[in-house]
From TrEMBL:
Molecular function as annotated in GO: porphobilinogen synthase activity; zinc ion binding
Protein name: Delta-aminolevulinic acid dehydratase
GO BP: protoporphyrinogen IX biosynthetic process
Pfam families for this protein: ALAD
Keywords, comma-separated and alphabetical: Heme biosynthesis, Lyase, Magnesium, Metal-binding, Porphyrin biosynthesis
Annotated source species: Winogradskyella sediminis
NCBIfam families: PRK09283.1
Signal peptide region: none
Quaternary structure and interacting proteins, as annotated: Homooctamer.
Lyase in keyword set: yes
GO-annotated cellular components: cytosol
Enzyme kind, highest EC tier: lyase
Listed EC numbers: 4.2.1.24
Length: 330
């Protein structure tokens, strides 16, 4: 008999296909990144991220309400820090009344059930644009981890549900967990960026926050001494297992599309939820190609989202979250 099996019977029409689809996307899959700036009435489009904006706190309230009404119930906060508040030690990151800390309170006041995660890294606060303190031409590890723990504590005190260290210094998850426990924030969780690669896909994000490493004669302009080498796979598993031992409740792979193998590998290895980050450069690439009419924006967006979930993501961090749920909500 030819052919032995007719697999095409399962693909006859959309009803049939949707009946047997292994992976489905819902609004619950998403974590929405939000960029916050000082000021009033500010909604600025990010040049390299079309249709993505930085909001001042007053307008952030409306945005959060919109997200909630779409069924998007978790946000990941980033702040753009004014230049005059930046220094090598990230002092402003610890200001209990800083922009991040106020943003957390504003969202909790506006939409108390919204789950708030916060980025914990020094780069937006650093005058040199690194995720740690720079001394003698090096990004020093242990002192940076101490500052990150203190920074995370101020986020917890302001009301953050989860803190998300995105720096890749060693031991920072442990330092954060210890300090949170010591200060009785036993329910504040940690989503650790455990497999974060030194990637050129972060370019547009660094425009969004004006956080790119600056030119210095004695310090490398890239982040390769702390973020991971993209030739490595086993190292990602090692990094992730260590972070779980140190107290990470959720682990993350970043970037997304070029690292789906890593995502699946980690999903198979660990018993905690795994997040993925479809980063700014991935967003920008799709936008640019769609603008030129070379790719179908919505179809590519849905296909990449599906790819993350199929590869094992329990949480998808994406600048497309709103656009995707508008389509799936109909
Ligand atoms: C900060 C941080 C970065 C991103 C998230 N947190 C930039 C970096 O590590 O250089 C990138 C996110 C994106 O590109 O969308 N440490």
């Amino acid at each position: 008999m030819f052919p032995l099996r007719r697999n095409r019977r399962l693909r006859t029409n959309e009803t049939m296909r949707s009946l047997i689809r292994e992976t489905n996307i819902t609004p619950n899959d998403f974590l929405v990144p939000l960029f916050v700036v000082e000021g009033k009435g500010v909604k600025e489009e990010i040049a390299s991220m079309p249709n993505y904006y930085r909001y001042s706190l007053d307008l952030l309230k409306n945005e959060v309400k919109t997200l909630w009404s779409l069924g998007l119930k978790s946000v990941l906060l980033f702040v753009k820090v004014p230049d005059n508040l930046k220094d090598n030690k990230g002092t402003e990151a610890l200001n209990p009344n800083g922009l991040m800390q106020r943003a957390i309170k504003t969202i909790k006041d506006t939409c108390p059930e919204m789950l708030i995660m916060t980025d914990v890294a020094l780069d937006p606060y650093s005058s040199v644009g690194h995720d740690g303190i720079v001394k003698n031409g090096m990004i020093i590890n242990d002192e940076s981890a101490e500052v990150l723990a203190k920074m995370a504590l101020t986020h917890a005190q302001a009301g953050a549900d989860f803190v998300a260290p995105s720096d890749m210094n060693d031991g920072r998850t442990l330092k954060i967990r210890e300090l949170l426990e010591q200060e009785s924030f036993i329910n504040t969780g940690i989503m650790a960026y455990t497999a974060k690669y030194a990637s050129s896909f972060y370019g547009p994000f660094r425009d969004a926050l004006d956080s790119a490493p600056v030119d210095m004669t004695d310090v490398p302009k890239d982040k390769k001494t702390y973020q991971m080498d993209f030739g490595n796979r086993i190292e990602a598993v090692r990094e992730t297992l260590i972070d779980i031992e140190e107290g990470a409740d959720i682990v993350m792979v970043k970037p997304g599309l070029s690292y789906l193998d890593i995502l699946r590998e980690i999903k198979n290895e660990v018993d905690v939820p795994v997040a993925v980050y479809q980063v700014s450069g991935e967003y920008a690439m799709i936008k640019a190609a769609a603008e030129k009419g070379w790719l179908n924006h919505d179809q590519i967006m849905l296909e990449t989202t599906m790819a993350f979930k199929r590869a094992g993501a329990d949480i998808i961090t994406s600048y497309f979250a709103k656009d995707v749920v508008k389509i799936i909500n109909g």
